[in-house]
DNA sequence: GCAAGGTC
């Protein structure tokens, strides 16, 4: 009998397999190269069985609309609230369903070891759906089990194995509902907003005007802070500035008024007038207190990201990439966790021993091993993964750049959690001048403790004079000072992470993605000290939602949906009912938004320029013969003011007019898309958006156009089938004479052959090469550089056979370091002509 | 081309 067990990720499959097999197992790689299968023999329900343990990589499936809704032009966004959806493979490269099916074929028992959260419960059912039909008893749910574990410790894993339960359908359904809501709501609003605003404004500078239940509240936090700054009214306040002078040492020091500051000038002057004649202050109290600055709790993801942003200047998304590298290379434990408490059996000694090798903190690790280690503070156990700790020693030489900086932080943080608290004494001296009280405070470190590892957290030493109760101190001066309150500053990335966590926006794994999204979409800009400053676009979006339906950008919107989802998870509400109910609310919100979009639009009008006011005249429209404008800000596009039509353009490279040449199909003037100095694609802006032939795709240019006679289409310019990709056609590019190149019309093929720079003219002749049957080139050489005899400059030659021309192919192969044995027979046309007779060429795609 | 959630 075979028991198949599935974990959520390869690393966990390995850890769990090691524990359950008592480290006696065989491992092999799965066919998708991502997952391994670990096998051992043992007992299961009193049977002698063979265990097979493997994993998925997160979700197996993801939700999307059926293909017919992919076309933004043909779908009204409101249809997305009811349009049919389908589950498709989350990561097609991994071929996860096929992999699972293969490993599950004929298996007797299935044990699910997915993470013990709702997403994990959902993945359980994705796994079941993938394998159920190939199990030994496909229709017997009694052979499917769920392991419930809260940590990856031997005790917990073995206990889970001995107490197998069943997967929880309700929890899984709550995730299905979440997926469907996010998809429908996010896509409907995003498509509507994008179409509406991009169709009106030319300088939004973003490809997408997106909406999402996490990204939008995230943006809203940043805009709220900006609003607080903008609406801040400074207030003037006054306070007594008192300097005292130690009579013996002559040392002068400032003392703080117990009333701090007051916003009433007259009242402050009243006190001032009362005190100004005084010459001395009386020490009324001297208080020496020992204080502690507590060692940090164990590190979880969010805290690591905050520290990486604030202390190391790394964006959260970058910090996570670095952390994942450290993890896969075995330097740190799993970096996505909410838990801040170490497992009961965590082996501190082992980690400390590893770190004694460090030249920088080795002595501290040794000191902790020598009996000076203290128990870590108790944090929170979320039951997901242990806190982030180093798992092996690394030196700065082993880890370049940011890998080292993050590893250093994680290691120092770990050492800090088991180091002694920082202790310092605080001396507070209280004075009285008449009836007003003043004080000053000195600080002195007794023991650095854990702050030894993080000097920037150490206590700043502050000296104050040594005074005794009852002593009298001379007054240096008493003044009234006037100051103003200051506005808050823009939100730092680190503060934003804190706000998101507090409000339940995103998860440890997705918080960095949401922050990255609002940066990439150009809603906020990252400025000094990693502060997030909203752009015009970010501001008008949030202010627009606030005008139309403030709930759309409030964090509570997410939590209210979560509450509904909780009901499903707890089995208190029916999945379909909740989904239907919540979708209806959002559909109504969507329609209300559409009806009132002018409220948001008026804000856009103030900030952005209309399409017609932006851009520069570019080329003539084939419909009205008027000039269309090129809108340069993202997304680059052409706009015909008269016809009110927008034409998408290639997004890479520059666009210029192609010698006022016209497309024979629609009269639109042709353009050239220059991707780099050697790669130019002519295209018709109309055909680019509305392909004229079945074999042409949206986004294709002239070299992919099968027009039978147009001089720009491949029928007129193709020389042969591409010898590099065997897929496309080699096309003569004569768009920028006197430079000539041969390129492949397969977008995925990178081939570029640069023809000799001695040429001044080249086009494709009607003659075919006698030798290889490829179309010949009519060429003209520069009169001073011609390789032809008798100073002759023009000729007809074959690229593949002519000695002067085929050099360029050899150069290409040399440059690309290709060892293709160039065989011109490969290019032989199947209808080889007899004796080089002129004939009209027709290039077939299947050349 | 769109969301958010897993993870590689």
Automatic annotation (TrEMBL):
Query: What SMART domains would the database entry show?
Result: TOP1Ac, TOP1Bc, TOPRIM
GO biological process assignments: DNA recombination; DNA repair; DNA topological change
**Enzyme Commission no:** 5.6.2.1
* Source superkingdom: Eukaryota
* GO CC annotations, alphabetized: nucleus
Keywords of this entry: DNA-binding, Isomerase, Topoisomerase
Q: Which Pfam families does the entry link to?
A: Topoisom_bac, Toprim, Zn_ribbon_TOP3B
Reactions this protein catalyses: ATP-independent breakage of single-stranded DNA, followed by passage and rejoining
Domain Topo IA-type catalytic: residue ranges: 168-590
- Residues in Toprim domain copies: 2-150
Provide the GO MF annotations for this entry.
Answer: DNA binding; DNA topoisomerase type I (single strand cut, ATP-independent) activity
Q: What class of enzyme is it?
A: isomerase
**Role of this protein:** Introduces a single-strand break via transesterification at a target site in duplex DNA. Releases the supercoiling and torsional tension of DNA introduced during the DNA replication and transcription by transiently cleaving and rejoining one strand of the DNA duplex. The scissile phosphodiester is attacked by the catalytic tyrosine of the enzyme, resulting in the formation of a DNA-(5'-phosphotyrosyl)-enzyme intermediate and the expulsion of a 3'-OH DNA strand.
Per the record, the similarity remark reads: Belongs to the type IA topoisomerase family.
Q: What is the designated name of this protein?
A: DNA topoisomerase
Q: What's the source species for this entry?
A: Brachionus koreanus
Its taxonomic placement starts with: Eukaryota, Metazoa, Spiralia, Gnathifera, Rotifera
């Amino acid at each position: 009998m075979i028991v198949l067990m599935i974990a959520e990720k390869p690393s966990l499959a390995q850890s769990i397999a090691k524990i359950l097999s008592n480290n006696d197992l065989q491992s092999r790689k799965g066919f998708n190269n991502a997952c391994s299968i670990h096998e051992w023999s043992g007992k299961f329900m009193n049977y002698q069985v063979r265990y097979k343990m493997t994993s998925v990589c997160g979700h197996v499936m993801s939700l999307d609309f059926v293909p017919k809704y992919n076309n933004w032009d043909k779908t009204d966004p409101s249809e997305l609230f009811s349009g049919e959806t389908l589950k498709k493979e989350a990561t097609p490269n991994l071929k996860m369903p096929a992999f699972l099916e293969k490993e599950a074929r004929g298996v007797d028992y299935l044990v699910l070891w997915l993470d013990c959260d709702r997403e994990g419960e959902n993945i359980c059912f994705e796994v079941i759906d993938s394998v159920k039909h190939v199990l030994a008893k496909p229709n017997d749910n009694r052979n499917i089990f769920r392991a419930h574990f809260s940590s990856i410790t031997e005790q917990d894993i073995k206990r889970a194995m001995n107490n197998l339960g069943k997967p929880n359908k309700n929890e899984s359904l709550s995730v299905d509902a979440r997926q469907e809501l996010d998809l429908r709501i996010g896509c409907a609003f995003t498509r509507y907003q994008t179409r509406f605003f991009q169709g009106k404004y030319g300088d939004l500078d973003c490809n997408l005007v997106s909406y999402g239940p996490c990204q939008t509240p995230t943006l809203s936090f940043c805009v709220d802070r900006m609003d607080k700054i903008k609406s801040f009214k400074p207030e003037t306040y006054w306070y007594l500035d008192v300097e005292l002078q130690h009579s013996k040492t002559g040392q002068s020091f400032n003392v703080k008024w117990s009333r701090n500051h007051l916003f009433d000038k007259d009242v402050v002057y009243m006190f001032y007038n009362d005190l100004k004649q005084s010459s001395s202050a009386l020490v009324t109290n001297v208080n020496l207190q020992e204080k502690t600055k507590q060692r940090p709790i164990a590190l979880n993801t969010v805290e690591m990201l905050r520290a990486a942003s604030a202390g190391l200047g790394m964006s959260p998304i970058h910090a996570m990439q670095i952390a994942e590298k450290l993890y896969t290379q075995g330097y740190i434990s799993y970096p996505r966790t909410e838990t801040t408490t170490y497992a009961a059996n965590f082996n501190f000694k082992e980690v400390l021993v590893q770190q004694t090798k460090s030249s920088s903190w080795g002595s501290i690790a040794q000191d902790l091993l020598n009996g000076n280690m203290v128990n870590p503070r108790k944090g929170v156990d979320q039951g997901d993964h242990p806190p982030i700790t180093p798992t092996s020693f690394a030196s700065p030489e082993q880890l370049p750049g940011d890998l080292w900086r993050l590893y250093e932080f994680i290691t120092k943080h770990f050492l800090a959690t088991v180091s002694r608290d920082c202790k310092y004494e605080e001396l507070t001296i209280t004075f009285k001048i008449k009836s007003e009280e003043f004080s000053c405070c000195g600080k002195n470190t007794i023991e650095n403790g854990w702050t030894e590892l993080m000097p920037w957290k150490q206590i700043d030493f502050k000296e104050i004079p040594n005074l005794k109760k009852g002593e009298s101190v001379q007054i240096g001066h008493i003044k009234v000072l006037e100051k103003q309150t200051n506005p808050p500053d823009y939100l730092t990335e680190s503060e934003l992470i804190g706000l998101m966590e507090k409000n339940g926006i995103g998860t440890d794994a997705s918080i960095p993605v949401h922050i990255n999204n609002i940066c990439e979409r150009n809603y906020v800009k990252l400025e000094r000290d990693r502060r997030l400053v909203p752009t015009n676009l970010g501001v008008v979006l949030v202010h627009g939602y606030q005008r139309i339906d403030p709930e759309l950008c409030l964090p509570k919107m997410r939590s209210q949906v979560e509450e509904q989802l909780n009901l499903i998870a707890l089995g208190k509400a029916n999945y379909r009912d909740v989904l239907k109910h919540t979708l209806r609310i959002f559909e109504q919100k969507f329609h209300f938004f559409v009806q009132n979009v002018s409220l948001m639009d008026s804000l856009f009008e103030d900030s952005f320029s209309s399409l017609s006011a932006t851009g520069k005249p570019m080329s003539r429209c084939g419909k009205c013969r008027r000039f269309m404008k090129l809108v340069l800000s993202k997304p680059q596009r052409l706009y015909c003011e008269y016809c009110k039509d927008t034409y998408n353009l290639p997004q890479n490279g520059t666009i210029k007019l192609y010698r006022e040449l016209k497309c024979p199909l629609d009269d639109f003037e042709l353009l050239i898309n220059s991707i780099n100095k050697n790669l130019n694609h002519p295209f018709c802006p109309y055909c680019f958006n509305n392909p004229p032939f079945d074999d042409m795709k949206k986004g294709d240019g002239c070299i992919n156009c099968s027009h039978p006679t147009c001089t720009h289409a491949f029928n007129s310019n193709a020389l042969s089938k591409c010898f590099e990709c065997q897929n496309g056609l080699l096309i003569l590019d004569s768009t920028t004479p006197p430079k000539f190149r041969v390129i492949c019309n397969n977008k995925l093929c990178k081939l570029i052959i640069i023809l000799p720079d001695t040429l001044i003219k080249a086009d494709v002749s009607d003659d075919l090469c006698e030798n290889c049957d490829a179309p010949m080139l009519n060429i003209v050489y520069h009169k001073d550089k011609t390789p032809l005899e008798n100073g002759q400059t023009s000729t007809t030659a074959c690229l593949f056979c002519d000695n002067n021309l085929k050099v360029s192919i050899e150069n290409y192969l040399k440059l690309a370091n290709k060892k293709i044995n160039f065989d011109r027979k490969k290019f032989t046309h199947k209808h080889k002509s007899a004796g080089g007779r002129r004939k009209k060429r027709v290039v077939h795609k299947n050349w």
